[in-house]
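Exercise: predict the fold of this chain.
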Amino acid sequence: MYGWTGVILRVDLSSGAITREPTNMRDAKLFIGARGLAAKLLTDEISPRTDALSPGNKLIFAPGPLSGTFAPSMGRYDVVTKSPLTGAIAASNSGGTFGPELKFAGYDMLVIEGRAKHPSFLWINNEEVEIREAGELWGNMVPETTEMVRALTDEDARVACIGPAGEKLSLVANIMNDMHRAAGRSGVGAVMGSKNLKAIAVVGTRPIKVANPKAFEKFVKIARQKISENPVGGTGLRVYGTNVLVNILNQVGAFPTRNFKDGYFPSADKIGGESLTSNHLLRPKGCFACTISCGRVTKVVNPKYAGKGEGPEYETAWGFGADCGIDNLDAINKANYLCNELGLDTISIASTIACAMDMYTDEVISIEDTGGLEIRFGDAETMVELVRLTGLRKGFGNQLAEGSYRLAEKYGHPEYSMSVKKQEMPAYDPRGVQGIGLQYATSNRGGCHVRGYTISPEVLGTPFKMDQHATEGKADVVITFQNLGAALDSTGACLFTTFGIGADELAALLSAVTGVHYSPADFMKAGDRIWNLERQWNLKVGMTSADDSLPTRMLKDPIPTGPSRGKVNHLHEMLPEYYKLRGWDAEGIPTEEKLKELALA
């Protein structure tokens, strides 16, 4: 067995049963691993109507066949489950070292089933697997939990855990690993909390077998060189981190501001990567086998917001910054540290706070509704406090913990939620960048940029340049990036490797590792297959083409200032072509011919 370990580990928390079974190799070849293979298992085994927070939901941790190899930046894994935030399929991708360690322990997937009677944690030491009581761990923050679990198991253990947000079933809770890395979006932390599972600790010592070592070494060298020569993958991300995008997006008028009321933030330079590097950066940091090192180890000395940790990433700086009308980088850092400690998704909670600020400004909610807090744009101190309250589900934070859609809907104004399929949109205004709007609308997990990062061609000009305001050709490029992303996620590769390499190199690496020949076309077809599998399941959940939309503000309210002034998103021009090119009917349903083509019929 090469690349894949050939083993799936199942843990039934209800019965305490721990079993192993062989990986379905036909499925592995078709769906690759990680996101794709885990989605196949989930959709085969649970009903779309399953309550996401019930024992019937499953929580799958899955590295890919390239995870843990020395190919550049191949240290990712996915958490796949049914999302309690959206009701759709969730596939949350994370880096660090946890995914490779699970692979070294000998597993293609870890499938968590049922619900423990008492707070528990899982200890995996190669083939030795135990469910242990976690009473003393419950209630602790992520860093303390991580250290306590290591003390109880092995000081070298890699730990994935939830913080108080996951325990309290916040719909915007993450699963955190290596303290600062996040399997974020979609509320996967709440699913882990619903199972009374506080943490998973792993130690693995088994090697990953490579089918063709000489070919693999050759393609690794090629990939490393191409990434290092790319100005984004080789220089920009290492020097300034992902936060380098703040000024870039602001300069093109697509930097969402004050809950997407605008697309331009005049003081953006105060919260960008350049300012972070000058004032807070201690050192860059990478994940397993990373050649990019986009991570930031930072420190704030201001006593009011003092702290140390990793981040903030671009999305985080934007969310707690421009989206909340704040240019205080000390406060943004503090909010980010709190999210990592509490186990909160920075995009969703920041956007939910911005939504609350917008509603408060327009008197949709009052000071009585907020428990005495004045929630105004630009108030950094209150923003930080709201993050803490949300993670602990205290006061008004109990409402924020449900996400922006449910918050706004509760007060009769869901239009204030800047979300798609109930998941908050990230840091690119779809009025200023047309293709990313189509991507948001059609994403299988709701508002998301990493499912098809069209910002690369539309703004960064890589691997080619497109007019950000044009709609022509955007449907085709969105599909290409979505398929590429689905296949890439399934290998265990980092998205940022695409700032240098693409389907050609990824297919060559995958072929060399597994011994299964993947042409670039095969690789892209696997991505198409995974995308359509997820789409099928979401349709069975009850989603329709009506869910492939954007907030009304994006479609009708022009950006009022900045370089993209006067622009709205023209989704209606792009969506019919997207459906047609996808091989779907006019209602967004995959045709029988398409399903047969992808072996999904």
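Check your answer against the key: Residues 64 and 492 are 4 Å apart (CA to CA).
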